[in-house]
Amino acid sequence: MSKRDYYEVLGLSKDASESEIKKAHRKLSMKYHPDRNKEADAEAKFKEVQEAYEVLSDPQKKAGYDQFGHAGAQGGGFGGGGDFGGGFGDIFDMFFGGGGGRRNPNAPRQGDDLQYSMQIEFKEAVFGKEMDIEIPKETTCSKCDGSGAEPGSKVETCQTCNGAGQQEVVQNTPFGRVVNRRVCPTCKGSGKFVSVKCSKCHGSGTEKIRRKIHIRVPAGVDDGARMRIPGEGELGANGGPPGDLYVVFRVKRHDFFERDGNDIFCKIPITFAQATLGDEIEVPTLDGKVKLKVPAGTQTGTKFRLRGHGVPYLNRSGKGDQHVKVVIITPTKLTDRQRELLREFGELSGEETHGNGETSFFDKMKKVLRGEI
Which of 62, 78, 230, 324 has the fewest CB atoms within 10 Å, i.e. the most exposed one? Predict the structure, then answer.
């Protein structure tokens, strides 16, 4: 059977550009690859596409083919064994990764991000604060300026890869010859060979330092929040940009206030007389003391809300609220006169009093546990 026209195989005109040839090849290779297409003739079409690309992607073979047809392309030779060369290698890398060899080791790469955990006080998180922090990071070696070579020594081109930073490894497979590219083991992808390594960085081109960074803790930040500082991460490779720094805030607990989101919670003790008769009391807030009116007959556990006395919202105006829970404190030390007045109060209220008032709530609870009452 006569071979089809290579341009027809790839669906191209004879004036197709190099990029159009490559694009058509990759598209049809993905379509007919035996691992993806289970049709009976898929493998034959796949090989046909590779053969067409092998010729049309090579300027010398393409010129011979354009002038003399299939006979003119034989000068490059296929050896009769299905040797599809670099074209198949591209597709092999597309499906199987090629061992990561397709990435240019000398291409610019962004540096890694860094994370710094920072502990701050409760009120620093509420009101914000400016401060300096020190972080360990890598920077360009100050002695060799990043070359990795001892000043005065030569930096030569790697003889193993001729400065490419990668090597080609050829493998024969049932589908033909596969060409993979791998990082050069001699120069580790740099393309350079250092005869005398820098005594300070030992050839790495970088050194560890402690860098001081001025940061502003935003008002209202909460425990576990992260703040991104662009460009303060690790150095990029081959001229690539640095990574970013992420500061994670750890907020200490407060002895009196509790926080839930942007709201603040606290407990305020009041006396029996204040709860019974009512009173105006002072309540501590994040902003200072405020007056709170306690109505007569207030029960223990009653909650009040102080609007706008909570934590500032991040990136917008306004604050949360403060929630106040009043707790009635029972006096433990009474004078004889106080006891007398309380007994009188109990009698007037129709309540029964016992002895001299020394039996406490905890004494009653113990009796219940012992089954005595």
Answer: 230
